[in-house]
Amino acid sequence: MPEPTTGARTHRLRVVEVVAETADAHSLVLQAPRESADRFTYRPGQFLTLKLPGADGRPAARCYSLSSSPHTGEPLKITVKRVAGGYGSNWVCDRLTAGDELEVLPPAGTFTPASLGHDLLLVAGGSGITPVLSIAKSALAEGRGRVMLLYANRDESSVIFRDELRELTEDHPDRLLVIHWLESLQGLPAADLLAAPLAPYADREAFVCGPQPLMDAVEQALRSLGAPGDRIHRERFFSLGADVFDAPAVPSGTAAEGGGTAEVELDGETHTVAWPAAAPLLDVLLAAGVDAPYSCREGACSACTCRVVAGEVKMLRNDALDDQDIAEGYVLACQALPLTDRVEITYS
Ligand SMILES: Cc1cc2nc3c(=O)[nH]c(=O)nc-3n(C[C@H](O)[C@H](O)[C@H](O)COP(=O)(O)OP(=O)(O)OC[C@H]3O[C@@H](n4cnc5c(N)ncnc54)[C@H](O)[C@@H]3O)c2cc1C
Ligand code: FES
């Protein structure tokens, strides 16, 4: 079982139920303890970061999107699909049973619609259905718009949430259309083949999650249909490399080494912290006891995204934000170093 809590931000959730969705995908229904329940409010499309006992004795961090919706009253649920030869997914599917506890970071991520009030185009492949289902259920429960979901799988037996999707279409026949794409029947979903089914929906904001080739094909198809790139949102699944749960070591810094002050607005509070030139903003905040969001701490997941309101920063690495985000002042706190004496940041 997971080691005792070491990080300030992890919480222990109880596994209430394990549901075998398909031969190789399990859902875990989770319950947060009463005292930290407010840390587990979330937006559709967000994910949890699990702290699993690693094979090498160090914790292994794995992210799993919430397949539940925050707008339907259902409990927290993640869905994990086994990856051949993978450590974490098989550990979760083989080892966890009802009554176990899991140590996790609170929900994070930016793969979430700014508004649920508009028509949406959703595309998922395999386990990529998890955040997409959360968005679909939320839009149907909370919004008024229509939802088209194209869901690609190897074959019929690998379709996760088949019954839930059927029930949703029965409940919302005028608002939800689900198109299944089975590779066993239709071949690989290549861009030229996807253009026809996607064409009627190309003007909608799109949320795409699945294997890289599928996401590339969908983006290529949508762009060929005239969809602007900033309306196509992608969620990339990968395994975290670093031990993200280690307490950050923040260099003390001297005047000669530069650095300055960060004024950070988070959850309605303003925190003023000294910001040494060589320390990423996230490390500075965590070391100061500020409950700043994060997951990968390697510039890849966007969980730590915040916005520079005044001053300047540079990012060491960025595999998560696009040019438009950067032009709007967004930065990754886990990669941000100060370039000016004073920097104002907001997480709102
Ligand atoms: C934001 C986010 C959300 C996610 N949501 C979900 C979700 O909802 N559901 C879900 O199922 N997954 C999700 N993932 C993916 C998940 O976090 C894991 O990446 C996935 O479960 C695989 O982890 P693993 O430990 O089983 O595989 P890993 O051990 O990380 O291995 C991955 C692959 O690499 C190969 N490999 C591993 N080590 C080596 C090596 N030394 N040499 C060669 N090959 C190697 C393995 O054989 C395997 O094919 C998400 C990821 C992110 C970032
Ligand atoms: S924590 Fe993942 S990009 Fe910063």
Automatic annotation (TrEMBL):
Keywords assigned by UniProt? 2Fe-2S, FAD, Flavoprotein, Iron, Iron-sulfur, Metal-binding, Oxidoreductase
Which PROSITE patterns does this UniProt record tie to the protein? 2FE2S_FER_1 (PS00197), 2FE2S_FER_2 (PS51085), FAD_FR (PS51384)
Q: Does the keyword Oxidoreductase apply?
A: yes
A Pfam family this chain is assigned to: Fer2
Question: Which residue intervals define the domain FAD-binding FR-type in the entry?
Answer: 8-114
Kindly indicate whether the keyword NADP belongs to this entry. no
Q: Which InterPro entries match?
A: 2Fe-2S_ferredoxin-like_sf, 2Fe-2S_ferredoxin-type, 2Fe2S_fd_BS, Beta-grasp_dom_sf, Cbr1-like_FAD-bd_dom, FAD-bd_FR_type, Flavoprot_Pyr_Nucl_cyt_Rdtase, FNR_nucleotide-bd
Q: What is this protein called?
A: 2Fe-2S iron-sulfur cluster-binding protein
Which organism's genome codes for this protein? Streptomyces sp. R44
